[in-house]
Amino acid sequence: MMESDDKDVENDESLSRIKAEIATLNAKLNHFDLQRRQALNDLLDLKGNIRVFCRIRPILNNEYGHFGSVVSSDSTHVLLKFTESKRKYYALDRVFTPAASQDEVFSEIEPLIQSLLDGYNACIFAYGQTSTGKTFTMEGTSEWPGIVPRTLEELFKKAQTSQHKFLLEFSMLEIYMGILSDLLSPRNRKTTIRKIQSLSIRAGPDGGIEIENLRAIRVNDFHQVKQLYKLGSRRRSTASTNANTQSSRSHCLIRISLTCRDAPQRQRERNKLWMIDLGGSERLLKTQASGRRLEEGKAINLSLSSLGDVISALQSKKPHIPYRNSKLTQVLKDSLGADSKTLMVVHVSPKDEDLCETVCTLGFATRARSIHLAQEESMELRLKKEYAIVELLKIVKQLEDECQEIRSDIENLYENLKYLTNVDSKSFNIPEAPQYDAGDKKPHVKNVKATPVLNQPRFMSSTACSRQKTSSLSPSAIKKKVQDPPVKRKSSSVYADSLSSPVKGISQSGYGSECSMSKTSCSNWIYNEECQSEFSEDSSECDVKMVVFAEQKKLPSTPYLSDKGFNRFKDGRTEKTERKKGLNFNNCPCPRKKEQTAAQIQRTKKGVTNAVPERMNVNKKGHIEMSVPIKLHAFDSFNYNAVDENDLNNDFALNRVDPLSEQEINQISIEMGSLLVDETQSSGNIFLIEDSSGRQDSPI
Ligand SMILES: Nc1ncnc2c1ncn2[C@@H]1O[C@H](COP(=O)(O)OP(=O)(O)OP(=O)(O)O)[C@@H](O)[C@H]1O
């Protein structure tokens, strides 16, 4: 008897000891997690809250013509070769060559995911001329999944291993000719765009933006979200155009809302990520679009122009941000600017004949990065910034490892509890975590040699002493040090690469001839001889005229570049070509806007806003959707717009998607011409259709 009592006491003591240890570790975890969060945010701030990448599309198998005028001169510059002597460099945050894999592109997106879990809003855009690979980058293929599926998968992985509970909701909508429609709403096969309810936008009680009646479907795992994404993608409006047989005719917006109630240290309780495959910018004259395609093109161009206006106004910290100019910018109002992170991947074509559109796209990209800031930044400051980024990356990695180690220690202790008591250890009441006193146990950032990102002269590299000094700084101190250089002071979100001479040298390039284009990008940028562009807030449709600049200075040649392009013929032969004296710029747009009368502006605006679309999901033949064999899954509830308070704190990780039984599936007629949610049969359930036809176009 005595022996058993002794054992009980011993057991109790062990239990209390383990519980106390768990509490201490929890406190330690919170402490390090907070530091990691701070370091990551500093890192992203330093990189810039609005980052712009460029992806050059590879030459496709069936493509022929002249190539070679668009090259990436290094990892942050694109070079356009207009003629032998006329070239222009564009600086971006990162340039992806035609050979870049989806993995490489995603590696730039990944840090953002942790930031999302930390409560920051984020937007990822794919921008570019039609057929340059926006959908490929965002959606990808089953073999090469793009940013959206990868981000969703990673987000779930991270949310599941986090010590906090997250509620994730998925929404998908498109903006087609100014009409907002829910891509996940229940529809029957005969639903046309006329019948689709156009969603309205309003300001929420907390000042955020709310889209009325947009479904926010709770998702518990990647499989669920994958089904929804597939459904929404199929419903998107696409059509065959001269430029692309499967051209997206709308902006497709995916929204993931994250809610976390048990992490007061998060930036906000509810935040969101937008992933947006923008409609392709087009030169309407070149595509020779007419009728509906023309109207679609105009609507896309108009809203892209408004997006450019907003990003530019945010970058230059204007007091007025013109969000109201388009539905697209209205929807994104609370997710652009402030502490939100924005990533824009602009896409360009490798073809010489698309060079004019490429100029426009890169003009848009440069504006989004805010060129005036780039010009102000000195080489010294840039080097400091690069160095600080390397240091912060190390700190973030170290803190992440630290947190991971603590998490596994906690898991082990819970296992011990379970062993001692034979009860599910998570149901134990662990005391409130005491404040963790870091003392001198703060994660020590080793004195790491700076890896110069640029080839800097030796005299500019840091000394052992200065490295020692910098490494011992806290993340915020590192950021501050870079932010507050002795000469100039600027805010963290506006760091942009400064460029040495080539940019200015080339800026006086002379390429000209009169031309006309849609206003999407070029018309809003008026280049002067310094290549400083002024921005026009007028987003109306207009023609533009080419300006002839003074003869440019000869550029120093770079080892990366070849003056030869090449032709690819229909029969597959290729031939190297000397660069011609000048490319044919007939009908080429140039970045100067032609004066427009008020009446003209009014007329064009009217033309766009009055257009009423007749159908949605139009396929090549003009039909809605297509017929495919399907499998059905049921979701437990469809209308998740209002989230139940109690649900938030309960089992987030439950798998709530139950496949329907064979019998149920048989009961449902699946001989339909579209992927639809049949309202008559659903009785509150959503039926998701999985394509079992082996089609290769689904992303995941
Ligand atoms: N990086 C790439 N690697 C391989 N193929 C690519 C790549 N980028 C684009 N493509 C291919 O180019 C074609 C056009 O791409 P996509 O449809 O993604 O263009 P888009 O910019 O979305 O066009 P739109 O604006 O008209 O919808 C597709 O066949 C796509 O598979």
TrEMBL record:
<keyword id="KW-0505">Motor protein</keyword>
<keyword id="KW-0067">ATP-binding</keyword>
<dbReference type="GO" id="GO:0005524">
    <property type="term" value="F:ATP binding"/>
</dbReference>
<dbReference type="Pfam" id="PF00225">
    <property type="entry name" value="Kinesin"/>
</dbReference>
<keyword id="KW-0547">Nucleotide-binding</keyword>
<keyword id="KW-0175">Coiled coil</keyword>
<dbReference type="GO" id="GO:0007018">
    <property type="term" value="P:microtubule-based movement"/>
</dbReference>
<dbReference type="GO" id="GO:0008017">
    <property type="term" value="F:microtubule binding"/>
</dbReference>
<protein>
    <recommendedName>
        <fullName>Kinesin motor domain-containing protein</fullName>
    </recommendedName>
</protein>
<keyword id="KW-0493">Microtubule</keyword>
<feature type="binding site">
    <location>
        <begin position="128"/>
        <end position="135"/>
    </location>
    <ligand>
        <name>ATP</name>
    </ligand>
</feature>
<feature type="coiled-coil region">
    <location>
        <begin position="389"/>
        <end position="416"/>
    </location>
</feature>
<dbReference type="InterPro" id="IPR027640">
    <property type="entry name" value="Kinesin-like_fam"/>
</dbReference>
<dbReference type="InterPro" id="IPR027417">
    <property type="entry name" value="P-loop_NTPase"/>
</dbReference>
<feature type="compositionally biased region" description="Polar residues">
    <location>
        <begin position="460"/>
        <end position="475"/>
    </location>
</feature>
<dbReference type="InterPro" id="IPR036961">
    <property type="entry name" value="Kinesin_motor_dom_sf"/>
</dbReference>
<feature type="region of interest" description="Disordered">
    <location>
        <begin position="460"/>
        <end position="495"/>
    </location>
</feature>
<comment type="similarity">
    <text>Belongs to the TRAFAC class myosin-kinesin ATPase superfamily. Kinesin family. KIN-14 subfamily.</text>
</comment>
<dbReference type="GO" id="GO:0003777">
    <property type="term" value="F:microtubule motor activity"/>
</dbReference>
<dbReference type="GO" id="GO:0005874">
    <property type="term" value="C:microtubule"/>
</dbReference>
<feature type="domain" description="Kinesin motor">
    <location>
        <begin position="49"/>
        <end position="371"/>
    </location>
</feature>
<dbReference type="InterPro" id="IPR001752">
    <property type="entry name" value="Kinesin_motor_dom"/>
</dbReference>
